[in-house]
Amino acid sequence: MGARTSTRGAIRPLLGEYARRRIVIDLSRLEFCDSSCIRYLVSVVTWSAGQRVTLRNPQPAVQRVLDIVDAGTMFDLEGWGPA
To answer: Which pTM value belongs to this model?
Structure first.
């Protein structure tokens, strides 16, 4: 819980400060993604006040999870390998 709270505290002010810029989350070093990760990514979309969020370069295991939850309906996707 502490890591999530501290990450949220770090990200939210940046979303306001950079509201007119593109939001890109580089997933290339993320090796594991569970429901907490999905919930956090969805929270970023909520905090971004309607601005599109791009998920970039997921590793295959993370991409499989994001494909299962149909991430392409909520996020722009870059560097996605074949399903």
So the answer is: 0.74
Cα angle: 40, vertex 46, 50; to 5 degrees:
140
Among 21, 42, 22, 25, CA closest to 79: 25
Looking at the structure of the chain, the number of domains it has is: 1
In tens, the pLDDT along 31-69 reads 999 999 999 999 888 888 778 899 999 999 999 999 999
Report the distance separating Cα 73 and Cα 6, nearest Å.
28
Q: Which domain holds residue 56?
A: 22-83
Residue 11 lies in a domain: no
Say if 37 falls within a structural domain. yes
